[in-house]
Every structure is written in C-alpha cells, then in structure tokens.
Amino acid sequence: MGTEAKKRIETLRDELRRHEYLYYVLDQPEISDAEYDALMRELKQLETGHPELASPDSPTQRVGGAPREGFVKVRHSSPMLSLDNALNEGELRDFDRRVRELLGGAEYRYVAELKMDGLSMAAHYRDGVFVQAITRGDGEVGEDVTENARTIRSLPLRVKDGPPLFEVRGEVILNRKAFERLNLERDEQGLKQFANPRNAAAGSLRILEPSVTASRRLDYYPYFLLVNGEPYCKTHWESLDTLQALGFKVNPKRRLCAGVEELVAFCQEWEAQREELPYEIDGVVAKVDSIAQQRALGWTAKAPRWAIAFKYPARQEATVVENIEVQVGRTGALTPVAHLKPVNVGGVTVSRATLHNEDEIARLGVEIGDTVIIERSGDVIPKVVRVKSPGADRRPFRMPETCPVCGGHVVREEGEAARRCINTNCPARLRESILHFASRGVMDIDGMGEALVDQLVAGKLVQSVADIYNFKREQLVDLEHMGRKSADKLLANIDASRREPLPRVICALGIRFVGERTAEILANTFGGLDKIRKADIEALQQAEEVGPKVAQSIVEFFGEERNLKLVERLREAGLQFEQEVRRKTGGALTGLTFVLTGTLPSMTREQATERIEAAGGKVTGSVSKKTSYVVAGAEAGSKLQKAKSLGVPVIDEVGLLRLLGE
Ligand code: IVH
Description:
By secondary structure, the protein is an alpha+beta fold. It folds into 6 domains: 2-61, Helix hairpin bin (Helix Hairpins), CATH 1.10.287.610; 85-311, DNA ligase/mRNA capping enzyme (D-amino Acid Aminotransferase, Chain A, domain 1), CATH 3.30.470; 315-418, CATH 2.40.50.140; 424-497, 5' to 3' exonuclease, C-terminal subdomain (DNA polymerase, domain 1), CATH 1.10.150; 502-572, DNA polymerase, domain 1 (Orthogonal Bundle), CATH 1.10.150.20; 593-659, BRCT domain (Rossmann fold, 3-Layer(aba) Sandwich), CATH 3.40.50. Helix content is 37%, strand content 20%. The chain contains 24 helices and 23 strands. Strands 2-12-11-3-10 form a 5-stranded mixed β-sheet. A 5-stranded antiparallel β-sheet has the order 5-4-7-8-9. The mean pLDDT is 90. 2-(butylsulfanyl)adenosine is lined by residues 81-83, 113, 115-116, 120, 171, 223, 285, 304, 307, 309.
C-alpha cells in the first residue's frame, strides 16, 4: 500500500514536471489546464495522506509555503558583477577594438543575447535538485529567496544529468502580459501600480509571502552555468546549450557571431523588433565565446572585459500638451499630469505623462500648448523630457492654491516638492485611503472597488475608513449595482478582514513610506501596533530597512489626533493589533539538514538542535554535500572550511533564527 502510493507519487511528479516543462519552458502544452490541475490535485491528496513522502522538489511545492520573517543574507560563490554599457554603435565597436587588441590577433567569436529587463538571480542545484536561490544583492552578498524562487514555474526543481553541484545565473522577469494583468488588478483595487516590469519582478521576488510570488507568474531565463563559481563549459555558447538540455528556459533568441559586424546586425535586428517580443528588453549583451579568452581578458574592478551591454536608446516622440490637470492622492499630494495629444511611442499610445510637481514644471519650463518630447523607458507612465517648441498661444500652468477636489487649504511644507491638501476629510483623500485599505495584499476586501467607494464617499456613508466596520445592510442595498446578495457578500468580506494579520493592518493605515514590506518588518520587530505607536524615531530605526525618513513619517502619523482616533476605532472594530505567534510545528525547516559549529551567542548547541528539530529540521555531525546549512558561531573550525569548499551555505545565529521564523 505504502509502496504503491510512493510509486504513484513518483509517477505523478515526473508527469507534472514534464508538463511544466512543456508549458512553461517550451510553450508547447500537450494537455489542457484542467487535466494538469487534476494530476496536481491527485498528487496533493496523496502527499497529504503520506507526509513522510513530502519532498521540496515536488511540483506541489510551487504554490508558496509559509510566510517568512525576513531574508537571510548569503555570500555568492563568486561576485555577481555588472556590465559596462555601450550606448551606440561607435561604443560597441570601441569595445570590440579593445577585445581584438587584448587578444593579440587571435580569432574570437561573440555570443549575442537579448538583455532582458529584470533582476539577476543565482540558483543552486545539488544532486540535480534545486536547493537555493540568491538575489544579486550588492554583487557579493545577496538575499536567500529560495522559497519564492521555487514558485517560478520555468525554474526546474529537479534536473537530470547535470554536474553534482552547480549554479545557474540568470534573469528573473515578468513578461508584458503578466505585468499588465498584475497592474490591472492593482488598479482595480486602488493599489499603486508598478512603474515597469523590472520593478514588479523585483517586488514580487523580494516579498515575504511566497504565495504572493506564486501568483505573480515570474519567469526565469538563465545565462550562466557555473561550478564552484567558475564557468562549467569551454565556451559560453556550449553552456547555454547545456542549460537548455538540462531543461532550463534559455532564450532561443541568441546568436554566435563571427565578428563585430554580425554582432551589430543582431543588435539592429532586435532593436527594430523589440516591441513584438512578449517581454521588455533594454539592449543586447555580447560575450566573448571562449572561456579561455574570457580568462585572458579578465575583469576590471566592476565588470568583465569580455562582455558588454549594448543599450537601446529610450523611445521618444514629440507631442502637444493639451492641458495640465491636478490629481489628489491618498496623502493629499497634488500631482500635475500632462494631458497629451495621443501619440504612438514604440508601439504604445500615450495620452498622459506625469509632471511630478511644480518644481519639475519649472525645470522643464513647460506650458499648456507646448510641443514636448516624451519618453517611455519600459515605464508605464511616460515622462516629459523637455520642451521641443513653445506653443503659439501657450499659457502657463499654476498649481492651485486650493484643493481641486474639496476646495480646502493646500500647503507646501519646507523641503517638500509636493503641495498637499491638508483637509483630512477631503473626499479625494478619503476615496484613495479606502481603496488602499481594502485592496488585495492589504485588507483584501473584495467588492470594495472604485465604483462603490465613489458612491460611499459622495453619499457621505463614510467619513473615515473605520466607518466601513459599522455598515448596515440597509445602508448598502440601495446603492447602485448593489442588491441584497452583494451587500451581504460585502459585509461578510468586511467582517473577514478583521482577521487579517498585523502587517496588513499596519500597511492599511496608509502611513507614508510604509508599504507591504516595511509593514511586515515593523510587525516582526515590534510585535504589536501599540509598540510601534509608542516607539520614537530612534527605536523605530532599530528595525531593518527603516531609515530616518520612514521613522519620521511613522512618528508624525501617530502624532496626529485624527490618526490616533482612527487607530482606536479600528481596535474597537476588532482588527488584529498583535502579531500572531506562528505555529512552531508544521515545519519551517522540513527537509533541511543542519550542522552546528562554534559557539553561538545566545544558545547552546543543545538548544539550537532542539529548536531546529522542533521546526522539522535535522541536525547532523558532519558536513557533506547534503547539508543544507552550516550554522557557524565564534571560533568555528574545520566544519566551516569544509562547508566553504563544498559550497554549502553558512549562516550565523541570526540567520538561523530567521529561518526559524523568529
Ligand atoms: S551577463 C558579469 N547576460 O543585465 C556579467 N546579463 O547590465 C553579468 N542581463 O546584472 C551579466 N540579460 O541583470 C548578462 N543575457 C544576459 C542578460 C543580463 C539581462 C542583466 C543582468 C545584469 C545586467 C548587466
């Protein structure tokens, strides 16, 4: 019986892996989504019934596990440096000339690849199994994003026939479709949109809830195959082929170029077609193919001499500013927006561009009626670069002295670029605050979209966000597009939001500079909303990633009577003001093996062992390739050396506590 289940589980996993590969890497599915889901369901059921057969490389592990409390910092096997740029053909030819001279007449070839606009990430494999992913970070040390990376469907969790220990480096991206879908969702929920796919990809990979990463549909395109931090193959071209054979999604749009002419041609071809690609690229990367020649060329302090990034120029067009209007945001900030005569910029019709604030308008010298140059560089909101020619009947724009929505006072504080409406009851501010509060990823109140919120604000049904917790059914049923059924649903959703965890509540308050990530960090550092409220600027800065600007903003927020009232009313409404204590069992460390060495600052080895085991991890005495982490304290000895030589990640006590979710 047990062995039968085991067999079936193995078969299902293999099948699902094959279909994942067909779908996510080759884009050639053989079965329907429903059939795929059915196989996945069966596997999930079997795994639930047989927890002893669980495995981190099972396709079921892609859904994203328990939230993390922070990311562990990990040193890269060799630095992940950046590339020098060539901004035009001349600079590309200069690069080639240097290569030719340095190689002293030897023949050489280039591999040309598309430069995908995302963030780079290293993925480590041991005995064919994906074990760790690390962001680039500062190039030397990155963040361990293993659990999030596991949710990237095109990243194989298991490969056949690779070297026993290898590392892949490549780009995490969000394709245009996934990006547009994400922004559309965020827009519907009144959440701030991501400016470009790169930011969206970075934000999605570095979020503490793997299930959120899973929902974002990231993609991974590798471009390096390393063993011990060094290239595995003799040529770069061969590495790419090897990666592809291993099942990775290597970009097929690559070319082995005999010389600079072919390279230039490749750059030009893709510049002309870049808009037709399903993802954003910002140029072409050229690498000398032979690894021996790469070694001979070597590195400067920050980049290899054997590679270059040929950057495409930003797409610019000229158009007329037909009007300038002002939008009022959640914090009351007034943002001038240029309404443009619609123009096509690299395949996208643009009719608006942000002007940021009045200083920017002055800097540009732009007036209504002017012809301006606008630029789109992968960003959703294009920007005005400069005035091309002043309009014949141009007229200057003045920032309003009063709020365009409520007519209230507008002030510009010292050191601030923006004017703000200071009327805390301004309908525009209230509207944005409620949309933010209810949005997905914050209080998750489904059904509280723009159309409804506009009615609520206009009908004075809400004067403060907290009012939503006092809604009565009779108040809602008469609203447009709202029957009894949807009113009940909405009330149920509002009710359910009372159970959203503390980080979401903190985020929902809408404190400036406190987004999802900072809210999580604050919740984990302070454990309760009242502790955050009482903390002074210094105490707040003890939290990771909280600097003076954020701390100041938090203190100011709780310094306002009105906000304190809001907090009290939310407390009365029964929102979560304390951090839940995470379940210790269920195993944050399930499947991981640890080796302890040296003296840890705050616990004995026995205590550490106990805690690791309580979280489902294993502790062994000697370091091997199978070891997941070595926890090193003061005066760690040979085990630390061994870990380094095997490429086993080394963490300290803080790192361990983080893994434990403490
Ligand atoms: S090679 C030391 N290849 O561009 C060489 N980078 O400007 C490191 N990128 O940090 C990079 N596509 O995030 C390389 N085919 C490609 C790439 C690529 C995109 C990104 C990567 C890197 C940046 C360098």
